[in-house]
Design a protein that fits this description.
It is a single chain. This protein is α+β, with helices and mostly antiparallel strands and 1510 residues long. It is flat. Helix 23 crosses helix 25. A hairpin with a 6-residue loop joins strand 14 (154-159) and strand 15 (166-171). It has 39 helices and 57 strands. The protein starts with 5 loop residues before the first strand and ends with a helix. Strands 42-43-44-45-49 form a five-stranded mixed β-sheet, with no helix packed on it. The protein has a four-stranded antiparallel β-sheet with strand order 1-57-56-55, with no helix packed on it. A four-stranded antiparallel β-sheet has the order 2-3-4-5, with no helix packed on it.
Length: 1510
């Protein structure tokens, strides 16, 4: 056991890329909260021989916020210099020997996140912040440079050890850049590969790239583009760089190549120890590249392990685990920083800081852990030495862990065990069992009481009874009688007492912690027959012999009770503030009477010692009150938090105080002996070493526990005056607490609470599994500051990992936690504010009779005169004129004479009030007088009626009240308070008027509410309201509410209509369902169909079928939609959909059926729609035949066209099913004609391929009789089929290399009919010059041979297209169309000439020219117009009549069924003949030319005819 001071320091800060560093010779520093702790390592540490060679030697104090970066100068001769960066925005340069700031700058505007002292330039410190700004600061010349490289968050930066201008920077998003600071931060390399935070950057200690055997080719990574391509200079040539990232990889980069050469993936190691594998912890990947081993690299790993990678065997990814042999030597949580340190005796050490709050030192030669320095992550609330296991010190800490420190370990100064299981909150109280080994009771700030067995690894036992607030203190004492503890035999010898912040003391049975704890107030009340309210208890302490219990209270009193029944024998009224601590003197003194000494400390700074020997021994019948102390110890300047008697001395006491010091007293002499000032915060606990009379331990809210020697203190008493102020300044340099929401103080908030909540900023989270080190936040919330992306309490972070949140409720059972009742350091409690009433004078109420009052304050003579006039008036019954005049003048005497005079006085006063603008006072006077009606009349006339007046109106009678309410309602309308006016009308049962008023001012909602509540349901007013409101809502576009109105008015049809107005699928579906519910079947069906069509446009067939399911009458439509879906699926499968397939929603039955489309359709109909019998098919057919769609045009939208075609195809399939072949042919023809009319050739061909895959022959067979009525329709269908194939054949000739089948889906051109006619026109215009309609296809000479068989068969059928009657009929139609066009043109020109007449001559001159030009542009026929003579009107009329007569003569069959354009077919055949000689027979060519000559007179075909017929 060494006679030297020791420090248990705060935990090193978390999530900082570089906040610890070391220099040769053995000095190590780490940032903890707002300061830096320095540790001397090696022979120079002055450690006791046999113990680890290190010692905490001091602290750099000066920052006001968390220190985020720490770096030594690594230049020989200035190892004493170091730099720190902090969240307070400053970078400070320190001299560690004097512990003073040498220089500082506050250049950064944002949180500083990275810092490094250049290893090449003696006075250069580089820092970077979260917004991407880098500052270079040269210490010697106090100069700086601002660089802004990338607008990203910097996570770490490292200066090159080989080149003074190069700095590598790692960003939050995984980018790494190397910049040249001599070139204003120019980016030399941009290294891309990581995709998450860069935690660490290490340069290879050797320049050049020869140290690692990496082949150019071996690297599997792709070339990475750099920021800029620069010439290979010695600067960038040759150096490796290693980066560690949160993405779980380490990458080695080549600076000469500017790219990655090796990637090391962290291995998942099986963790030793009981860590829950399901709990994922956030990774921090830090690196160290050893100077003397450039082929090796040290890295951290997932759970705190350290790995030594062998870079020479990169393909094997070989690594060695540190401390592989010794169990439990590794860190148990992630490691943040690694610092190499060379001691004076040349040992190569490595120091690591971790989330497990340990600093470990590793021997690089053996990779074993040399020593561990534990640390604290919260306030040190409580200290307790074990009475059984001597030297075993338990420390209760605000980070949710109990530390048990074996202070007498010979091998290890810091032999500390952590206990975190089951704690989950700040540990505020500890107490060892007096006789049972390893039995430690603890209490937490969420009211939990538990028992730990420190010799086992079991979780603690937790009492089932929780305190509502923080546990203040614990004590072991004899059991007192309570119902729960049973008889003598089965009782424990000692039970556990706990005192909580709510003021109760509970007795827990340690054998049955799951049983209910006993509130000792019950026993105190019964034993002492107390009727009054018991005080709020704040402290409990048992005398060592177990016969006397002392309770400290919130009011400052201390009560002394005697066992077994807790008889109150004494009350000490000394302190007048909350009692924080009571301590009884030990029993083994040389003077036995000293064991009756009891010291107590409160929120006052004075300590009192009482000698209770006389009281206890006299055993008084009734309680004694003590008001004089035995000894008074004055000196502290703030509240006392803890007291401890020395076990080695008589009457020697140590006290801990909020003034930041601990004081040793000779209590018997009232003399201060020595004062310890080592803490930088308010002291919370103190304990005297049980082994060393000179040694004391103290804990404070600076996260430190100090072991100090009383004999070594230079001060003998607490600081007073200036000293005290300096100490406070020192304490104020502690971190400022982040603002928390303050809880309003309840009437009795124990100020003792400050002990536990003072300015501590640790928040605690529930731990999901065994957390190797508790589940509690670090350092007053600073550590997490680097974690802005984590929401409070969690997401990506593991539950094992502390995250700083606002104070949370902690216990699961009792969620109420005391929230910080902030108390400013050292300041005394301010007195309670006086009630405002006393501070601000109340405004005097306005007088009701001001004129009378003023007249009573006139001169004495006037007042005397008043008396005389009054006496006369009272005495004489008959008054003469003078006295009457006097009384009139002195109206205020009305108060003392008769009623008439009083009325007059009130009248005068009332007029005065009105003139001064106080009508309410006038009204009150009138009320006093009883003239309520008059008041109401006046107020109504002036528009000054109030609720009050109207409320009083009934006093004046029913009719007055009715009139007043109506008047008030009118007044309210003038003031635009219509709803209130209506309410008043309702009060006098004028319901219709109220409703009308609301309606006329558009308060429909209110009007309906009133009408519905007060009128008969069938009242027409109600319906009128609904309809009016509905109309307005409909106009404004609020369709859903309008629909509700129409439903309210029982007009369901309108409701459905208005819902459907929006026209989207959802609205239509709702409208259809509504119509269906109310029996409007026809409307419902039409809406459902519209809804289905909308969904169809969105390619949502599932929804469409659901909508159609609403109605049986839509069964036919369901079949159409089914066919539509199958056809679309069919088209999609053939890659012919219009590129919309991605978002389609198909029914399940649309897939998995093979075979031709008609068969697939009928199969689905039968399976899904249960269409089996001919009757069902017939019914569906009849349903669909009633629906007629208009014919298509070029402008018909494609989706609509497809639906109409599917309708026709459905009719065709249904007709086939009922063997009505003539109808089937007509329906098929309609589908084909529709696609032809719309110009969609592709769809036409798809209909052919799907429904007539083998041609039309089978239909001819089915029709049978060639004279049947369906024959013309069949002829047309066949003609269209041939027409389609003809075009496909022609296009196949134009393809560079036709495949074996002549027209293998020639429709790949997807030409619409518009394009076709365009092609023909273009071909025609080309032919006048070139005679070739299409570029001649480059086809091989043997092609004709290959085409012959196929072409002959196809081209022979083309004779069907040369229908003379159709050619003639189409020619007549064209003539009619052209004549109509010419007539329209003439009318247009005539109107134009009429319009232009008034204008000047200029434009008119052009008219004849314009007219002459016109015929040129549209030649009619070979006649006059050739000579550019316009046709006359009679001639045009004649032509029209002739053509119409010709048309009338054609049979109906020709007119009814469309036919492909005969001349167009002739032209195509002639083109084929010219392109492929011999393919078209001479006879057919002859026939085609004849038809062209005969019927090609119209302008469309003139030029084509010239080409082929001349």
């Amino acid at each position: 056991m060494g006679q030297e001071p020791r420090t248990l320091p705060p935990s090193p800060n978390w999530y900082c890329a570089r906040c610890s560093d070391a220099v040769p010779g053995g000095l190590f520093g780490f940032a903890a909260r707002t300061s830096v702790f320095l540790v001397r390592v090696g022979p120079g540490a002055g450690a006791i021989p046999g113990t680890p060679p290190f010692r905490v030697i001091g602290e750099l104090v000066g920052h006001t916020e968390r220190v985020s970066g720490f770096t030594f100068s690594h230049h020989p001769g200035q190892y004493n210099l170091c730099a720190t960066s902090s969240d307070d925005g400053t970078v400070k340069i320190w001299d560690v020997e004097t512990k003073a700031v040498v220089a500082e700058h506050a250049l950064h505007q944002h949180t500083i996140s990275a810092l490094h002292w250049s290893p090449r330039v003696k006075d250069l410190i580089v820092s970077g912040d979260e917004k991407g700004v880098v500052f270079c600061y040269w210490l010697n010349r106090n100069d700086s440079q601002h660089l802004f490289i990338e607008p990203r968050t910097i996570f770490c930066l490292t200066c090159s050890p080989h080149h003074e201008d190069l700095v590598a920077i790692g960003y939050k998003d995984g980018i790494v850049v190397i910049i040249d600071i001599s070139k204003k931060g120019e980016v030399i390399h941009r290294l891309r590969g990581h995709d998450d935070e860069i935690h660490s950057i290490a340069w290879c200690p050797l320049p050049g790239e020869d140290c690692l055997p990496i082949n150019q080719e071996e690297n599997s990574e792709p070339e990475l583009p750099n920021g800029k391509v620069i010439a290979q200079t010695p600067v960038t040539k040759g150096c490796y760089l290693a980066t560690g990232s949160k993405d779980q990889t380490i990458r080695i980069w080549s600076c000469s190549r500017g790219r990655g050469v090796m990637t090391l993936k962290l291995p998942f190691l099986k963790r030793r120890g009981g860590v829950d594998p399901t709990v994922k912890e956030r990774l921090w990947l830090t690196l160290h590249w050893p100077t003397d081993q450039p082929t090796q690299l040290v890295s951290s790993c997932f759970g705190g392990e350290l790995l030594l990678w062998d870079l020479t065997q990169s393909w094997r990814r070989k690594y060695t685990l540190f401390s592989a042999s010794a169990e439990g030597q590794n860190h148990s949580r992630i490691v943040f920083n690694l610092c190499p340190l060379q001691t004076e005796d040349d040992k190569q050490l490595l120091l690591s800081t971790s989330m497990d709050r340990d600093v470990k030192c590793w021997d690089m030669a053996s990779l074993e852990c040399c020593w561990t320095l534990p640390s604290l992550g919260g306030f040190a609330y409580s200290l307790a030495f074990s009475p059984v296991d001597t030297g075993c010190l338990a420390i209760g800490v605000g980070d949710g862990m109990i530390r048990v420190w074996n202070t007498i370990s010979i091998k290890n100064n810091y032999d500390v065990k952590n206990f975190w299981q089951g704690v989950k909150s700040k540990v505020t109280a500890l107490c060892w069992h007096p006789t049972k080994e390893g039995c430690l009771a603890f209490g937490t700030d969420d009211g939990k009481v538990g028992l730990y067995d420190t010799y086992s690894n079991k979780p603690p036992q937790i009492s089932s009874t929780y305190h509502k607030k923080t546990v203040y203190s614990l004590a072991w004492g004899p059991p007192i009688p309570s119902l729960s503890l049973g008889g003598e035999g089965d009782r424990p010898s000692l039970t556990l007492y706990s005192c909580g912040g709510e003021g109760l003391v509970l007795q827990h049975n340690p054998w049955k912690l799951n049983g209910e704890a006993f509130d000792i107030n019950k026993l105190i009340r019964d034993t002492n027959s107390i009727k009054y309210k018991l005080p709020v208890h704040t402290e409990i302490s048992w005398k060592a012999d177990g016969k006397i219990m002392a309770l400290g209270n919130e009011d400052g009193s201390i009560e002394i009770f005697q066992v077994p029944n807790l008889k109150l024998i004494c009350t000490i009224q000394q302190h007048h503030k909350l009692v924080n601590t009571i301590s009884w003197h030990h029993e083994h003194s040389s003077q036995p009477e000293l064991s009756y000494l009891m010291a107590s400390g409160s929120n006052n700074a004075v300590i009192y010692v009482h000698n209770l020997k006389a009281v206890i021994e006299s055993n008084p019948e009734s309680p004694v009150t003590v008001t004089e102390p035995y000894r008074t110890l004055s000196g502290h300047t703030a509240k006392i938090t803890s007291l401890a008697w020395s076990p080695h001395h008589d009457g020697r006491l140590v006290s801990a105080s909020y003034d930041g010091t601990a004081q040793v007293w000779d209590a018997l002499q009232e003399e201060p002996l020595c004062n310890f000032r080592g803490h930088r915060g308010r002291l919370l606990c103190v304990a005297w070493s049980p082994l060393d009379p000179d040694c004391i331990y103290s804990g404070a809210d600076d996260f430190c526990v100090y072991k100090w020697l009383a004999s070594m203190q230079e001060h003998s008493r607490p600081p007073q005056g200036k000293k005290s102020i300096e100490l406070e300044k020192k304490r104020l340099s502690q971190p400022k607490p982040k603002p928390k929401k303050k809880k309003k103080l309840t009437s009795r908030v124990s100020v003792k609470q400050e002990l536990y909540d003072g300015n501590e900023e640790e928040s605690v989270r529930e731990s999901a599994g065994p957390v190797e080190n508790g589940s509690v936040s670090d350092q007053e919330g600073e550590e997490e500051a680097r974690e802005p992306e984590l929401p409070c309490g969690v997401t990506s972070v593991v539950s094992r990992e502390p995250v700083i949140c606002p104070p949370l409720s902690l216990g699961l059972e009792k969620p109420k936690v005391i929230v910080n009742n902030k108390v400013t350091l050292l300041k005394k409690e301010p007195p309670k504010d006086k009630p405002e009433a006393l501070v601000i004078k109340k405004r005097k109420a306005r007088s009701m009779l001001p004129l009378s009052t003023s007249l009573d304050h006139r001169s004495k003579e006037e007042l005397h005169q008043d008396c005389l006039v009054l006496a006369t008036a009272k005495h004489f019954k008959e008054l003469n004129e003078d006295v009457s005049a006097d009384l009139e003048e002195r109206f205020h005497l009305g108060l003392f004479t008769d009623r008439a005079t009083l009325y007059r006085m009130m009248e005068v006063e009332g007029k005065g009030h009105l003139e001064n603008g106080h009508p309410e006072l006038y009204h009150q006077l009138m009320l006093w007088k009883g003239d309520l009606k008059g008041v109401l009349q006046t107020a109504a006339d002036r528009g000054e009626l109030t609720d009050n007046l109207v409320a009083m109106a009934p006093v004046a009678g029913y009719h007055v009240w009715l009139w007043a309410v109506e008047a008030f309602a009118k007044q309210l309308c003038f003031q635009e308070q219509y709803v209130k006016a209506a309410s008043h009308l309702l009060s006098i049962h004028k319901v219709y008027e109220a409703v009308e008023l609301l309606k006329s001012h558009h308060f429909y909602r209110e009007a309906i509410a009133v009408a519905k509540a007060r009128l008969r349901p069938e009242d027409p007013i109600l319906k009128d309201l609904y309809l009016s409101w509905g109309a307005i809502l409909e106009k404004d576009g609020h369709y859903a509410v309008a629909a509700k109105c129409y439903l309210g008015a029982a007009s369901a049809y309108d409701a459905a209509k208005v819902l459907a107005k929006k026209g989207d699928a959802a609205s239509l579906k709702t409208a259809a369902e509504l119509a269906s519910i109310v029996g409007e079947d026809e409307l419902s069906a039409s809406l459902a169909l519209r809804c289905a069509q909308e969904l169809l446009l969105a390619r949502n067939w599932v929804g469409a079928q659901e909508a159609l399911q609403l109605h049986e009458s839509l069964k036919g439509q369901r079949l159409v939609f089914c066919l539509h879906e199958l056809l679309s699926k069919h088209r999609e499968e053939r890659q012919l959909s219009e590129g919309e397939s991605a978002s389609s929603s198909y029914n399940t039955w649309s897939t998995g059926i093979a075979g031709p489309l008609p068969e697939r359709v009928t199969a689905v109909w039968k399976s899904t729609f249960s269409l089996d019998t001919p009757e069902q098919f017939q019914a569906a057919l009849q349903q669909l035949q009633t629906i007629k769609y208009p014919s298509a045009t070029n402008n018909t939208p494609f989706k609509q066209l497809l639906l109409h075609i599917c309708h026709d195809l459905t009719l065709a399939v249904l007709s086939q099913q009922v063997a009505s072949w003539d109808k089937a042919v007509e329906a098929l023809l309609r589908a084909v004609v529709r696609s032809y009319d719309s110009g969609n050739f592709t769809v036409m061909q798809e209909v052919h391929s799907a429904f007539l895959p083998e041609g039309c022959d089978h239909l001819r067979d089915k029709l049978g009789d060639p004279q049947s009525s369906a024959t013309p329709a069949f002829k047309s269908l066949e003609a269209f089929f041939i027409y389609g194939h003809l075009y496909e054949f022609w296009w196949s000739l134009s393809r560079p290399c036709p495949e074996s089948s002549v027209w293998v889906r020639a429709a790949h051109r997807r030409t619409t009919s518009v394009e076709q006619s365009q092609q023909l026109d273009d071909a025609g215009s080309e032919e006048t010059d070139t005679q070739a309609p299409q570029p001649e296809p480059s086809k091989p000479p043997e092609l004709d041979m290959r085409l012959t068989e196929e072409s002959k068969r196809m081209l022979n059928t083309c004779k069907e297209l040369f229908s003379e009657k159709h050619a003639s009929f189409q020619n007549s139609q064209r003539t009619v169309a052209e004549v109509q066009e010419t007539l329209a043109e003439m009318i247009r020109r005539h109107q134009k000439s009429q319009f232009c007449k008034p204008t000047a001559n200029g434009p008119d001159k052009n008219d004849p020219e314009q007219e002459a030009e016109q015929p040129l542009s549209s030649p009619q026929s070979l006649g006059k117009e050739e000579k550019n003579e316009p046709l006359s009107l009679p001639e045009l009329t004649k032509r029209l009549t002739e053509a119409n007569e010709r048309i009338a003569k054609f049979p109906e069959s020709v007119k009814t069924w469309p036919f492909p354009d005969v001349l167009e077919c002739c032209l195509v055949l002639l083109h084929i003949g010219s392109q492929c000689p011999g393919s078209v027979t001479q006879e057919m060519q002859q026939q085609a030319q004849e038809l062209l000559q005969k019927y090609g007179s119209t302008k469309v075909y003139q030029r084509h005819c010239q080409t082929f017929c001349t």
